[in-house]
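Section 5.1 Outputs to date
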Amino acid sequence: MIKIAVHNLRDYTTDKHKTVDNKPYGGGVGMLLKVEPIYRAVQFLKVKSQKSKVKQRIILFSAKGKTMTQADVRRLAKYDQFIMICGRYEGVDERVTKNIADEELSVGNYVLTGGEIPAMIVVDAVSRLVPGVLGRAESLEEESFTPANSKQLAVNNIYLEYPQYTRPEEFMGWKVPKVLLSGDHKKIGEWRKKKSKLT
């Protein structure tokens, strides 16, 4: 059986406006999802799952994450439950990536408005591997991206976005890099270029 539950991050805020986003430190366009409501939501869901002793994985969807393959789908199918963090706007505070998520996944080298569609892709791809979902189990044996048929694909080198942070400056001992608080735009630019990932 497959069960899906949607959780609103605004339910895990503490201010009267139920704020889930803020401007990035160091400047830049757009807004970032804050670390606190994501942390609280994940902690709540982790406590619930610990009671039932399920094997759980926390996934953050991001354009700079590892591009998901069928091998990842097979790996993820071994888990009982996922907590899927769906970004919006310019993404999420990097402390979510480093301290909360187990892994960061992308569904391709393109940009979407949010992580909801990637979450649907994971649900669909993994669900196919759950016994009983497909009419015949043999359907899985001779399809694209199975180990016998997969080939390594060449991908053009592209730079991916640098880590971003928003308020508060410190949370749970997790600090925003000092350079982003310096106001020195040249140093911030150099830091961002250095931190951009090349695939």
